[in-house]
Design goal:
Elements (H helix, E strand, L loop, with lengths): L1 E4 L9 H10 L5 E6 L11 H10 L4 E6 L7 H7 L3 E5 L6 H10 L3 E6 L17 E5 L13 H15 L5 E5 L7 H6 L4 E4 L1 H4 L4 H14 L1
Parallel strand pairs: 1-8, 2-3, 3-4, 4-5, 5-6, 6-7, 7-8
């Protein structure tokens, strides 16, 4: 299991130190939520912040675009330095074209699905993906409660990927914590994105290590 702490739940006034904290906790990726106030009702990080983070840390950046018209600034996001980049199925009209642009830009390409979007919509595009990001909360805000039915979505998608012998990685974002990470990993999820369960803990470094241990024991 790869652990990708969500910077949205960290110290927004000192993202550099938050990244250092993640490195100390053994984070494999850093999850960067980009919100435009239109696709979701919140505003967060933009291209200059991603560029600054890429210079500040050696941890690969996992950038999640929660924006309308993801193709409009896609090249600029890619130039900022993400290693993984996902766009929302619900926001993309020409998803094949966008996925190719992400791959051509040097990042692993992924599609994110809102909780109510069935995984079966990805059937035709799965071979083009490096990963799928399953949202287990409705996107827009940190600290929401995990929606358990999304774990069943992960099981279904994992089975579909296995039946077709594809190498698509499953990620999950939303309410991931010590009480549910084992079940999430057992369902086939390989990248766990966690925010409040890490940065809301008294010792975020210890919290990251506990999450990784619980996942490895699942």
């Amino acid at each position: 299991m790869l652990l990708s702490p969500s910077l949205l739940a960290g110290d927004l006034a000192d993202l550099g130190s938050t990244a250092d904290l993640c490195a100390a906790g053994g984070a494999d990726l850093l999850h960067v939520d980009v919100m435009d106030g239109r696709f979701v009702p919140n505003l967060t990080f933009g291209i200059p912040v991603i560029r600054a983070l890429a210079r500040r840390t050696s941890i690969p950046l996992d950038v999640h675009l929660m924006v309308e018209e993801p193709g409009r600034l896609l090249d600029e996001y890619l130039e900022a330095g993400p290693s993984w980049l996902s766009i929302h199925w619900e926001a993309a009209d020409h998803i094949d074209r966008l996925l190719q642009r992400i791959r051509n830009g040097g990042a692993r390409c992924g599609v994110a699905l809102n909780p109510s979007t069935p995984v079966e919509v990805l059937g035709d595009v799965l071979p083009q993906l490096d990963f799928v990001l399953l949202m287990s909360v409705n996107p827009g805000f940190a600290g929401q409660a995990h929606l358990p039915y999304v774990v069943d979505k992960a099981r279904r998608l994992h089975q579909l990927i296995s039946e077709r012998s594809l190498s698509v990685v499953l990620a999950m974002d939303g309410g991931v914590g010590e009480d549910n990470i084992a079940g999430i990993v057992k369902a086939g999820v390989e990248v766990c994105i966690a925010g409040s369960s890490i940065f809301g803990a008294a010792d975020p470094v210890a919290a990251m290590r506990r999450l990784k241990n619980l996942a490895s024991e699942a």
